[in-house]
């Protein structure tokens, strides 16, 4: 399911930023597992590997896209988004770079904060689009899985600068 909800996305990003400023980043085995899962997700995006992406997503995962706060509800919706990207001749490869993982002291949950960049495959001269993100992870059946991600566009260059239809 795809929707647009700019108010919700802004509120989520603001809340995530406030939490990050008040809590120390984790340096634990759990944080390392999340860093590894993020690296696997990035590799899967670059290599057009929907099976690996599916294994990292919780069934009810939520993605709030960067520029216009399009909302993708559920693993199926997110996989459809990525598979559409994989088939494009001018596809953009997105890379998320985590800067901080914060573990909940109460539940098997974690928040990831970082920056992201998108560049057209094989054509970096086309420019880039980039920004900040926050992601919530949940320990499910012994594996860290993505529960929610929200992105904000902060910079762009060239042909990848967003234009609202």
Description:
- The protein has 165 residues and is of the alpha+beta class.
- The chain has a single domain, classed as Nuclear Transport Factor 2, Chain: A (Roll).
- Helix content is 33%, strand content 42%.
- The protein has 4 helices and 7 strands; from the N terminus they run βαααββαββββ.
- Helix 2 packs antiparallel against helix 3 (50-56).
- The model has no long low-confidence stretch (mean pLDDT 89).
From the structure above, extract its key features.
globular, alpha+beta, 7 strands, seven-stranded mixed beta sheet, 165 residues, Nuclear Transport Factor 2, Chain: A
The CATH architecture comes to Roll
Overall morphology: globular
Q: Oligomeric form of this entry?
A: single chain
Radius of gyration: 15 Å
Major β-sheet profile = 7 strands, mixed
Name the helicity range. Answer: 25-40%
- Enumerate how many helices there are, as a single number: 4
The figure for the number of domains is: 1
Provide the β-strand percentage band: 35-45%
Total number of strands: 7
In terms of per-residue confidence, which ranges show pLDDT below 50 for 5 or more consecutive residues? none
Q: What gap, in angstroms, lies between the N and C termini?
A: 20 Å
Strand order of the largest sheet: 1-3-2-7-6-5-4
- Write the H/E string, N to C: EHHHEEHEEEE
> What structural class do you assign from the helix and strand content?
alpha+beta
Name of the CATH first level: Alpha Beta
As for the CATH topology, it is Nuclear Transport Factor 2, Chain: A
Mean pLDDT: 89
């Amino acid at each position: 399911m795809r929707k647009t909800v700019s108010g919700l996305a802004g509120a989520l990003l603001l809340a995530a930023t406030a939490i990050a400023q008040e809590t120390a980043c984790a340096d634990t085995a759990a944080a390392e597992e999340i860093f590894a899962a993020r690296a696997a997700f990035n590799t899967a995006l670059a290599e057009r590997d929907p099976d690996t992406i599916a294994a990292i997503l919780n069934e009810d995962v939520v993605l709030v896209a960067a520029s216009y706060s399009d909302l993708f509800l559920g693993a199926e919706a997110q996989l459809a988004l990525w598979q559409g990207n994989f088939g494009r001749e001018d596809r953009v490869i997105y890379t998320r770079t985590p800067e901080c993982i914060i573990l909940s002291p109460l539940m098997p949950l974690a928040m990831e904060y970082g920056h992201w960049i998108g560049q057209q495959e094989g054509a970096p001269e086309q420019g880039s689009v980039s920004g900040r993100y926050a992601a919530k992870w949940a320990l499910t059946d012994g594996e860290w899985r993505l529960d929610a991600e929200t992105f904000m566009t902060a910079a762009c260059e060239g042909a990848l600068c967003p234009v609202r239809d």
